[in-house]
What we know:
The protein is mainly alpha-helical.
Amino acid sequence: MSDNSASNVGKNRQDDASLSGLVSTLVPVALLSLVYVAVFLVLRRSQRRYYAPRTYLGSLRESQRTPALPNGLFNWVGSFFKIPDVFALQHQSIDAYLFLRFLRMTVILCFVGVCITWPILFPVNATGKAGQKQLNILSYSNINKDTQNKRYYAHALVGWAYFGFVMYLIMRELIFFINLRQAFLLSPLYANRISSRTVLFTSVPTPYLDEGKLRKVFGDTVRNIWISGDTTEIDKLVKQRDKVAMRLEKAEVKLIKLANKERQKALKKGGNAGNAGDVPLDAESGSLAARWVPIKKRPTHRLGLLGLIGRKVDTINWCRSELQRLIPEVDAAQGQYRTGNYKKIPGVFIEFRTQAEAECANQVLAHHQGLHMSPSYIGIRPSEVIWKSMSIPWWQKLVRRYVVLAFITVMIVFWAAPVAVVGVISNVTYLKKISFLTWLDSVPSVIMGVISGLLPSVALSILMSLVPIVMRLCAKLAGEPSNARVELFTQNAYFAFQVIQVFLITTMTSSASSVGQQIADNPGSVTSILASNLPKSSNFYISYFIVQGLTVASSVLSQVVGFIVFRILYKYLASTPRAMYNKWANLSAISWGSVLPVYTTIAVIAITYSCIAPLMLGWATIGMACFYFAYRYNVLFVTDNNIDTRGLIYPRAIKQLFTGLYLAELCMIGLFGASVAIGPLVLMVVFLIFTVLFHLSLNTALNPLLYNLPQSLLAEEETKHGIDTEAARGVDGGQPGYNGHNNNGMGPVPSVDSAKKDIGEVHLAHSRNGKKPSAIMKFLKPWMYNDYLALRALVPANVLDYNNLYTDEVQTSAYLPPTVTSQTPLLWIPSDPAGISKQEVRDTSKVIPITDEGCVLNDKGVIVWDQETTRPPVWEEKIEY
């Protein structure tokens, strides 16, 4: 039996294409990556809006901007690396900083794995005498289980060392996160935000949809209460009003452009074109435009379905007439809601006087019946609320969640079919043993390498890109109350999807395709065959890491497709000043729920194969380093954050690494069992038990601190800032936390140098004899060098007056539905030499606010506006909720 098995393995060896597959994947991917990088280096110098908008864009505050880099091809790299990652924390958000930290942490995780596994397992595997060739000589499959059985102890002991390091790293990062999050959320600037003092209670029973009863429940700590209501009718009216207003704005701009185009033609013919001063502003409405544009050429549209059928009307006159009707109707409906005349729904926002009181209310049991007034959420910004979810009763949420989970499960099962095909293609060289696929033997090795290496990796990436869209829709259908919660739901669901599809299904089908014929010929040798061939499926993931790490990372950096789309949209489809400004001023954002699981899965795969095929760790290190570089540039210079999870993306990603540990240990146990290696098998079973106990203990100890703020620190902070609360009164003295900035909460805008100085203070504040601690000591003792007091120095400086963040109007209407507070939009049209815009402003302003300031239509018919200004007419100040 063993001879037959060895014979079959030998046949596979003769056809082994692991090295050719690697080369065939690496060469085209490397060339494409070089093209992407070259494009980035060239365009970065001239296209500042797309490749460095955070250095100057007027829609950002000075405190949110990043210092500009040198403009040469390569001289910017040194300055780029001098900017510390903590700069993102101080200028953007805690999510952005922790995302970069996770990428850097995975680089360290993989690199340390290289340092632990390669020196021991490479020589052990390479001299294993199982006769494997090419890349497979470095994997577990090259150990002869009959004559070299003792070598498996090396894998078991190396596994103990590396898996132990991974568990320590997980614990260390969770401790760091807890201290950083506490320091960040308890800083005066963040603690005084209205979102930090407001709790959302869902599934509130009807008797408690009463402000008086809610104040009795929560006492005199309550400042404001917003009971959500049905806004269906207001939503329709506001949507219709805004739609008509934007149609009027487009028609006005179109009319001005058309009239000035005809005027320019007249100028070229030598006629009297006139100018803005030729016609008084009290001239008959439309007379100026009528001089150049006949009535038949004025902007028109049809009133029927999709504007394709129905009566044709003059767009400007019709819109003015409609707005005369709609604007008063909207104002009346909003006034009715504000006076409390609406149908109440079971979602209530309660603002408390202080953050400590809000945290207390969020952590207590609010109602005596199960699933009532729960779950509750703190820290949700008004702009992130999903208002449709407020009306979902508790029983419907329960049903919806189970339905959504069932749908995702079914989706995973059926998605396995195309992913399985990808796994089979990755081992296409082994399929030539099947009788009707013998023709594959005639395919050149180079082409076969591309088919087995590059093609499945690209196909898998495309397949997985469609999933997050569905996951976010599922989260909203399940009743998640905010966009932040949607991202967290997507992060969990997409990670499960990635692990099952990208890893488990692909691994199983990849291994099955390589050994299926052998098992069919000799079923009794199944364990021997699997032990020899399962590690070979790692070759696919090496190709996958190459594609992800080089091509995808370089495309993330260069953003070629996005740049082309941006230029096309801005030049050809942004036809009004408003559209041009919105496209110019709004930065792209990273979707945490769909981006982070991809890299968590890569880390999980690397951990799983660390002792089976340690070569993979090297490519994982390179790939993650490329991603870290690309996203570091984007976070610091390009992207913005629209969704704030208050850092909760990080512990989820960190704890998901346990999946890699469990899979690695189970795979090792399975392989030791198939190889009949009893000693190593027992060692790995013992370590699996230790891992489970460690995991449970870690959750018990740290989970409460991951998601809640402790009352002890809340009391100390409020005592420090002179806030009289019940929590603060319970503290006797107390040493205020260390902060690297002025006690009054105000300070200069942090710079790169100040960020570096803060990092130094973190270490010096907790060192002995005033000496900076070594990197090893900082790593081994996070509770000493990364504790709450130390990390206070990394908290953003308070560049705003946190005692006067909000006007009275904002304070009282913060958590009203957006359609209730929506104001009539200001229309923005360009001024023109003929003066038509002045007349249109005069006539349209009788119905709706309109201005032609801040942009001009030049002689070529192109709208020109000051792209450097901070406040065009439609600019809205960003409120830090």
